[in-house]
Amino acid sequence: MNPPAAAESRPAWRLATRRVSDQELEVTLSGRWCLSEQLPPVHELEKAFFEGLTTLRVVATELGEWDTGLPAFFAGVVKMGAERGFSVEQQGLPEGVQRLITMAFAVPEQAVAGRRARPAGLLDRVGTATLEFVRTAPEMIRFLGEITLSFGRLLTGRARFRLNDLWVEIEEVGPRALGIVSVISFLVGLILAYLGADQLKMVGAQIFIADLVAIGMVREVGALMTGIIIAGRTGAAFAAQLGTMQVNEEMDAFRTLGISQIDFLVLPRMLALMLMVPLLTLYASFVGMLAGLLVSATIFDIGMFEYYTETLRALTLNHFFVGLSKGTVYGAMVAFSGCLRGIQCGRNAEAVGRAATSAVVTGILLITITASFMTIIYYRLGI
Amino acid sequence: MSTAPHIEVRDLTMAYGDFVVQRDLSFTVNSGDIFVIMGGNGCGKTTLMRHLIGLQRPARGEVFYHGQDFWNAAPEERDRMKRRLGILFQGGALWSSLTIAENVALPLGEYTALPADKINEVVSFKLALVGLAGFEEFYPAELSGGMRKRAGIARAMALDPEILVIDEPSSGLDPLTARRLDDLIMELRNSLGTTIVVITHDIASILTIGNNSIFLDTERHTMIATGNPRTALEHGAPNVRWFLSRGEVRA
After folding, report:
1. pLDDT, tens digit, 9 for 90 and up, residues A224-282
2. One-character DSSP codes across A210-226
């Protein structure tokens, strides 16, 4: 057996087999046995095996340079011998190789059954996912319960968390989100105005763009867009923060001290979002209406003052109540999903990534579900 | 053992912004040395390692490998030089999305032409050398801290590097495993001629395996060259003797 071509210039590895007797096979290794060569895997030897083989003798008297490629090969031969029941002898193997091999066999191989059976069928995966859901669903409810109890403690003044943490979170989720909220709300306001203009043109009632944009932004879209932005921005951050704390055993440290993670970590984040998202919603609504005003005035020739009075006429306090209440609930949903996924997080980098992803997905899902419910309820109540 | 200089550090000053960690470090690591970097907590041992392996540029001074300037080399050349280094980071730094075997196999797959089954063979051998035979399919998160450290060493020596840089090999290991690791480090030096740079606090290990060393002084922010740690314990500078005797020899 010889290495692939193009190794002519240096003395590359060489592997020769010779059947010495009915029981014995001689394997001669020579040349350069380094990882930088295309060394042969040990099962190449199988071609030379024969019925009744009891002894395999490795002769390495004409060996050149070597590194761990050689002992790795020899260790493979020894293992193969143990599996197939032939003894392995050696001649001229460098002492260093022998010592390395002794070290490698010093700790017996750990027998771990079934590790390799990883790829699972569709049915298997569906089953696993279902069991996983059944396992985690009560966790979600328990978490909700713990948060409720924590709010109870807050109202009775017994919740323990640092006020400073609340301020830091408020700053992080509120003022720092203004940029992205401005951009997105402005563009959404603009889209609403164009959408309205196109439809209302048919009945010659383009002035009602103002109503559409104002009511749309204040009641629904402001809160919805803010909720989704915050889910991506803050929900993911919460999950990553708490998840990393889980990895660093910080959570365990809280647990052993008997400090409630819910009070200390979840409550300030929950409060921060429930306070800030309605304010951001209000802000988003105004930016959206501003965009509507600019589009109507510049593109559709509606007077600025006209638009303004139409907006004032359209908006009632009820609309603000609807928008702000939705904002508050969305904030709570985002905090809930972010903190839940963070606390459920596993103990490695990959798990933190999954927690962040899952926090955003859960957050947006919860926002959409509650949005639908609240819209139906408010419709029924006539608000 | 040859005594050709393998790594040479000249007038190295390390700083984070205005804060000077250590100044004017000059020392030579010879081929086949087991070179120990010692010093109290926060003296800059790991920072020095980061300067040696190309993760942090010196504020001043040079690092030479076989006489070739490391930091002033072209980026591609520096990458080539880095490939001759094997590094164990303090926490193991295993890639958590890969199994232990995949962790060790990655450098082999990237930088050698070995066929896949040969790579598996080499990976199994390296894991066996650190006492982890049979753990190939485990993910890092499923191993104990000490096992992760050993798997990290297996990855560091995947490519049979010329220089093995090891940050705190024995922290988190039981005494027997730590001893086995010392034996392995010596064996790598003896049989493969690997030059080894070790950062460690383990006095027993320092005195057993080290044949050359420096001591980084936390207060004066510079080094005390000490040579063989065993000699340093007997005749070295007072600070070093104090450190090596765990405070029993008065400074």
Report:
1. 999 999 999 999 999 999 999 998 889 888 888 888 889 999 999 999 999 999 999 99
2. HHHHHHIIIIIIHHHHH
Residues A266 and A361 both lie in one domain: yes
Cβ neighbours of residue A266 closer than 8 Å, sequence gap 6 or more: A147, A150, A335, A339, A343
| Residue A317 lies inside a defined structural domain of this protein | yes
pTM of the model: 0.76
In contact, A176 and A277? CB cutoff 8 Å: no
| Structural contact between residues B159 and B111, judged by C-beta atoms closer than 8 angstroms | yes
**CATH for B24:** 3.40.50.300
Contact state of A39 with B114 under an 8 Å Cβ cutoff: yes
CB contact under 8 A, B112 and A35: yes
pLDDT at A381: 94
Look at B240 and A339; give whichever has higher pLDDT: A339
- Whether A106 and B141 lie within 8 Å, measured CB to CB: no
Structure tokens belonging to residue A74:
């020899």
Domain that holds residue A274: 153-381
Q: How far is A32 from chain B (nearest CA, A)?
A: 14
Window 174-193 of A, Cβ < 8 Å to B: none
Taking the C-alpha atoms of residue A290 and residue A298, their distance in angstroms, rounded to an integer, is 12
Nearest chain A Cα distance for residue B139, angstroms:
10
**A chain contacts of residue B114, beta-carbon cutoff 8 Å:** 35, 38-39
**CB nearest to B187's CB, from A69, A103, A348:** A103
CA distance B33 to B228: 10
Evaluate whether residue A6 is within a structural domain: no
Same domain assignment for residues A348 and A227: yes
Give how far A333 is from chain B: nearest CA, Å: 30
Lowest mean pLDDT among A323-327, A351-355, B142-146: B142-146
Cross-chain Cβ contact A347/B115 below 8 Å: no
- Res A4 pLDDT > 70: no
